[in-house]
Every structure is written in C-alpha cells, then in structure tokens.
Amino acid sequence: MVSIKRFDTLSFQEAVDLFNEGFKHYFTDITLTVDSLIKKLANEDLSPEKSVVAFDQEKPVGFVMNGFRTVEGQKASWNGGTGIIPEYRGKGVGKEMISACMGIYEEEGVDLLLLEAISENTRAIKLYESMGYSVFDKLAFFVNHESLSERAFYHEGDYDYIHGIPQDVKDIEFYQHMTPWQTQYQSIKDGESMTVKSGRETVGYAVFKRTINASGKREGIALYQCEAKPGHDKAADVIQFMLREIYRPAEGACRRMTVNFSKSNTLVCESLSKEGFTVMIEQVHMSKTVRKPSGSETGIKAVQS
Q: Which Pfam families match (predicted)?
C-alpha cells in the first residue's frame, strides 16, 4: 500500500535520485543532475507542488511530474514524466498516482490533459487509455549523424527568411499550438526560429536549436517545428528550403535530429527519410479533454493509424 504526497516534499537531491531510479532499465535511460532537473522544471513549466510522489512507508518509489500552460485559450496540463523504480513496476503504483493527479487537475480547473508515451510501452499506454486518454498523433525522433550530400534538401524557389527566436512565430496564422509540450515555443529556451517569405507572403516557419561544443564546433541541430502554409502550391519546396537552411549540408557531419516530431507532417518526414535520417524513438501523443470551453475547439485531430 503506497501513500501519495506532493513532489515538493522531496529535496532536489532526493528528486534527482528518484527520477534517475524511476527511469532505470526503461526503454530509454534518462539521467539528470540537480542542475539539469532545475533547468527542466523551468523550461517545461513543471510544478513540483502540483506533481506527485508515491511512497512506500518513508521510501519514494514513483512520481508524476505535471506542467501547466494556457494553450489557445485552454488551460492544459502535461504529464512531464512518470517514473516508477523497477521493483515497484506492475503493482498498480502508476494508476494510483494518475488518479491522484486527476484530483489536482480538477482543483486547477484544467481543460485539457496531454502526454507522450514511447510506442513500445504498451503497458503505460493501456493505463492511460483506462484513465480516459486517447492517441491523437504519432511522434518520431529522426536522427542522422553522417555528412549530407551537397544537394541535400534541394529546392527551386527563391525565398527570404527572417531569423528570430521561437516566440517570434507564435502569431503566424498557421502556427501549430498543439504540438508536443517540449516543442512549443515556451519550452525552447536558447532556440531559434525562421519565418519564410515569398514576396510579402509568409509561407513557412520553423523552430530549431543549434548547439556548439567547447571547441566551437557544431555539435548538433535539433528541429522542433517545421511548417509550410497550408494549401500553398509550393509547400514541398518551402519545406526543402527550410530544412536546407537549418541542417546546413555544407557543414559536414554532426548530430542532426528532430524532437518529438509529428509523423502526420509527411512533407518533412519524407524529406528527412530521403536524406538518410532514421527513426531513433517513436512515441504516441495522447490527450484527454476534461472540459471543453463553450463554442471552442480543442485543436486536436486524431491521425490515421
């Protein structure tokens, strides 16, 4: 029998120890330090006082991290990580924690619940489905560590773009607000954006981040969002232009990747596959509507299996 308490009852070191143990022998190992946990809390709007920990007597054995944001007029909560230490998995701890979170969501007046789960983790997906969540999108981490060909992402059109920060694209009429939490502009600190123009018309945008190592060499390029204007007659060409500008084939080999990228964005996914990108991790994007504001839409559409 476990008891449920709030996450902020733990010290930062206790929280890190539980987080790392909770993801041990998981589908992908996740390891944090105190500094990286603090950064994660800030970047992803995670709330320790509105997150939960499961205890067996005095021993913390599992946790659910919750983040809160207003997205398109709806108060949304995101499950930013559910972890259970190995010897307590499969014993109903997850269900107890999610049930406790439902009470928190009600207290906070949340309209929409969101989470991602690794596609192979069928046990977790079934648990979330039993709690009222459903899959509405499929996500992929594409990656390529090799050099790209000189003609990679070839395009024919002549476009201009405005370089900026992630929040600069949030008011574009076709900006995708309901992307995975970590790919929303609010989460991408130190990131970049590009707004693509054809004449005076905005025809595309992207949000990405480039990292440089201690010696000043390009270490990685991560793409979070990349969208062409819906219905644009040269949408595929606009996508190619953005991918070429972001991934910079002439710079040689580095870790080029996407983060939780929607597989329903077929133009980008097909372009990446053509240039040798492979899928490293696949996830499902799940949601549960708690209450729907009168006269509004959730902005969520299920993808075809």
A: Acetyltransf_1 (PF00583)
pTM equals: 0.91
| Domains 3-110 and 141-282 belong to one CATH topology | yes
Mean pLDDT of 121-134: 95
What residue ranges do the domains of the chain occupy?
A: 3-110, 141-282
What fold does the segment set 141-282 form as a domain? Aminopeptidase (3.40.630)
Task: Report whether pLDDT(23) > 80.
Answer: yes
- Which DSSP string do the residues of 194-246 spell out, in sequence order? EEEEETTEEEEEEEEEEEE-TTS-EEEEEEEEEEEPTT-TTHHHHHHHHHHHH
% the chain with pLDDT above 90: 87
Domain 3-110 has CATH 3.40.630.30: yes
How far is the C-alpha of 257 from the C-alpha of 192, rounded, in Å? Answer: 15
Beta bridge partners of 82: 64
